[in-house]
Amino acid sequence: MGIGRWELTPFDYNPQPHPIGAHPGPGSRECTGREEGFNMRSLCGVLILGLVVSASYSLQAQGGLTAATYPAKMKEAAQANGELQKALKGGNAADAVAPAKTASAAFADIEKFWAAQKKDDAVKLAASARMGFADAAAAAAKGDVMAAQMAAGNATANCKQCHGLYREGDPQAGFKFKAGAVN
């Protein structure tokens, strides 16, 4: 179908002007839909590759906690708890919000780790710690230091109980999982 000096074919859109009635013949490069450079197949390939890479990063971020990376997450939670306790001891509720949220987020990852290990008691303890730190953050955000201290205290009680079940060692020698604690 001709439109002025431009011609659209069922095979491709070719913006090359053709004299009316001078359609390129069958088998010519212009009729095959193949063009040099970037084509639709390349675009689909790039999009699929992007989705695969994006999905792998997403999965790693969601549940990437392993036995090897677990100690770093525990240190993150312990550091956040230390900052939280310091802020609450000083009566500074505003400074307690961020570390309480950090500790709660760390325990969300820790909870997923124990779920993957199929340790229901550890999952419950981590979930309770996560909720305790979230409650501490909420209370601190409202300026209620006493309620934040109570919630943080309840959260740390869960920590101690889980450590008694699944951890061995000491600060000097280092901590490790008890035998059979992780798969």
Task: Describe the model.
The protein is mainly α and 183 residues long. The chain folds into 3 domains: 36 residues, no CATH class; 29 residues; 111 residues, Cytochrome c/b562 (Four Helix Bundle (Hemerythrin (Met), subunit A)). It is 63% helix and 8% strand. A hairpin with a 2-residue loop joins strand 1 and strand 2. The N and C termini lie far apart (68 Å).
Query: What's the count of strands?
Result: 5
**How many helices does DSSP assign?**
6
CATH superfamily of the largest domain: Cytochrome c/b562
Q: Within the CATH hierarchy, at the fold level, what is the topology of the largest domain? A: Four Helix Bundle (Hemerythrin (Met), subunit A)
Task: Tell me the span between the first and last alpha carbons.
Answer: 68 Å
Low-pLDDT regions: none
Radius of gyration: 30 Å
Rounded average pLDDT: 82
Largest sheet: 3 strands, antiparallel
Helix/strand/pairing class, anyone?
A: mainly alpha
Amount of helix = 55-70%
- The main sheet orders its strands as 1-2-3
Characterize the overall form: extended
Order of helices and strands: EEEHHHHHHEE
- Whole-number count of domains: 3
Q: Indicate the CATH architecture of the largest domain.
A: Up-down Bundle
Strand content of the residues, in percent? 5-15%
CATH class (first level) name of the largest domain: Mainly Alpha
List the main descriptive attributes of the protein structure presented here.
63% helix; Four Helix Bundle (Hemerythrin (Met), subunit A); 183 residues; 3 domains
